Amino acid sequence: MSSVVKLVPSRTAFFVCDIQERFRTAIHAYPSVIATAEKMVKGAALLNVPVVVTEQNPKALGATVPLPLGALGNGLHPEWSPLAKTKFSMVLPEVEKSLREWKTESVVLFGIESHVCVLQTALDLLERNIAVHILADGVSSCNHDEVGVALARLRASGAQITTSESVLFQLMGASCGPLSTGSRY
């Protein structure tokens, strides 16, 4: 029997993995991935959930697509983020330090590519006993067939496969919360 893995805003962080301009024409369903990322960043601002953003080799692959990161309050978006990286995983020393400072127990992960950077980030987090929630509607790859295989491997490795709506409503907890119908992301 698997354990129950609930999300709690004060112990959760959102990870935006390598959603960069250069990938606009290469990634399957990229506009949907971007829309999910925008929704999640807006939700993070309303729920006071910290956000980490990385860029894979930005000199070659360009900057992160425009996201509403300015809406995040003080302490919810590290000064070094977006963090340039060449390692596929987002789990770098700066990120690990922030996770410890925030007392993070769960990470909600979305971005690209599902079978490379998202997968390696999730495995590194799971190895550190951090619960990982992958947004099925927030990940993709150049080759669409890679997505299902990556999600199956992630699930088998212990990650929770979920959706952006499910995560936001779980974090909100009640219909009178900050994401209620009147202020929906």
Describe the structure.
- The protein is an alpha/beta fold and 185 residues long.
- It has helices at residues 30-47, 58-61, 93-102, 114-127, 145-157, 164-172; strands at residues 12-17, 51-56, 83-85, 106-112, 131-140, 160-162.
- The mean pLDDT is 90.
Write the layout of secondary structure elements.
Elements: E1 12-17, H1 30-47, E2 51-56, H2 58-61, E3 83-85, H3 93-102, E4 106-112, H4 114-127, E5 131-140, H5 145-157, E6 160-162, H6 164-172
Parallel strand pairs: 1-2, 1-4, 2-3, 4-5, 5-6
Helix pairs in contact: 1-6, 4-5
Kindly report the spatial arrangement of strands forming the biggest sheet.
3-2-1-4-5-6
- Overall residue-averaged pLDDT value: 90
Q: How many beta-strand runs? A: 6
Structural class: alpha/beta
Tally the helices.
6
pLDDT < 50 runs, ≥5 residues: none
Q: Let me know the largest β-sheet.
A: 6 strands, parallel
| Helix-residue proportion | 25-40%
Shape: globular
Output the radius of gyration.
Answer: 15 Å
Series of secondary-structure elements, N-terminal to C-terminal: EHEHEHEHEHEH
Terminal Cα separation, in Å? 35 Å
Query: What fraction of residues sit in β-strands?
Result: 15-25%
What's this model, at a glance?
The chain is of the alpha/beta class and 185 residues long. It is 37% helix and 19% strand. Helix 4 packs parallel to helix 5.
Task: From the structure above, extract its key features.
alpha/beta; 6-stranded parallel beta sheet; globular; 19% strand
